[in-house]
Amino acid sequence: MTNRCKAFTLLEMMLVIAIIGIMATFAIPAFQDYVVRARVMEGMSMSMPARIAVTEAYMANHEYPVSQQSAGYQSPAPSKNVDNISISSGTGVITISYTAQAGGGTLILTPEVKDDGQITWDCQQGTLPEKFKPRVCR
User: Fold this and answer.
1) pLDDT tens digits along 87-115
2) In a domain, 2, yes or no
3) CA pair distance 107, 105, nearest whole angstrom
């Protein structure tokens, strides 16, 4: 009976490393996109007070606020991911401006009044690349 060593050959090891390398070329960019999408969601969360201010102003006066101040909204301080959040005068449109690490574009939230008086938000506009937009905005 011969005593054989049970180990991987050099060829098998190189094959495994090549497979891992190929998988990494697809996984790393996908992971980076997920990180940017998470950063974009920070802006969506930070825009909630602006959406509430526009909704309250519309419900009280049946028109969109003429300015941020009349809506009682003050833009939050910039963060690592969000440069600015502002409400457009008279339209209630909210613009979220992102930093470069969060996609470097804008996401525009447009209010729409439904027949029952409920306000919904359309977020399909803006310069933020499509792949970074939240799923509800695509």
Assistant:
1) 998 999 999 999 999 999 999 999 999 99
2) no
3) 7
